Amino acid sequence: MITRxxxxxxxxxxxxxxxxxxxxxxxALAHTPYIVPVTFAPDRDWVGVQGGMSEEAAFVPDxxxxxxxxxxxxxxxxxxxxxxPTTLKSANMLDAALPTEGTYRISTGERPGRAGKAAKVxxxxxxxxxxxxAGAPAGPARPMEDDAGGGAGPINAVDVPAGAEIMDTxxxxxxxxxxxxxxxxxxxxxxxxxxxxxxxxxxPNEIYLDDGFTFRVTVDGKPASGLRVxxxxxxxxxxxxxxxxEATTDADGKASxxxxxxxxxxxxxHYPDAPPASAAPASKTWVYTLSFEVTP
Length: 296
Known about the structure:
Layout: H1 4-18, E1 32-37, E2 46-54, E3 61-63, E4 71-74, E5 80-83, E6 86-87, E7 92-97, E8 102-107, E9 111-121, E10 124-129, E11 155-156, E12 165-181, E13 196-200, E14 213-219, E15 222-223, E16 228-233, E17 244-248, E18 254-257, E19 263-271, E20 284-294
Parallel strand pairs: 10-11, 12-20
Antiparallel strand pairs: 1-2, 2-3, 2-7, 4-5, 4-8, 6-7, 8-12, 9-10, 9-12, 13-14, 14-15, 14-18, 16-17, 16-19, 19-20
């Protein structure tokens, strides 16, 4: 009989092997943080976890997640323990301890990303492109940063008018996964009420094709309504396709995803969604990802 654990291990092995052989043609992802375990149902008192920043396909690292700070493992009793992964050029590697049976949440924690500034120029908020270091030439504008959209693109710091309103901005990333040693338990699923969080309603280690995945997204403990959520299926390197399943959170921050295929998935969401050009940008932004498996 083919066991659930064997199916999961085979799927993850295929994902990690794909990292070494390249990608099939298909829609590309922006650089997206992720962490994924070797198995979502470990039977030992530890589990191997890989992390990275993927661009072309889910779970295929382009480079490691970097930045100061430890990762966090939340145990079945809700107690958090710090963990320090090995950071390579291409990926992060961690053997997470699982001392007792139950469900564990493994997380990068809230990690600061790009810090920047925005300036209000002519009634429109524009990202400020920092001045190059002394003696360094200014880099060319990237294609997505042109001003074709009515002058709302980034502006060089030296071109910001004197007296313009300036705002500091800071981005954060959070990548998480859940594993269950033995029967799934609820203790590690409880949100803390700070920052961008995804609270599973369906247990993340009990997601089945017939039932789908229901969850709630919150910011500082309050529902994040109207938020777009996308789940990408891993292991499709040789299929010539990229499965992307989308949903939008309701007034209570809830959303559900349905699946046509079993496998490992990477859920991604951003908060807030892009504001109109005339609106002030958010001073704090987040990208959140969750890896999970869907079983038959």
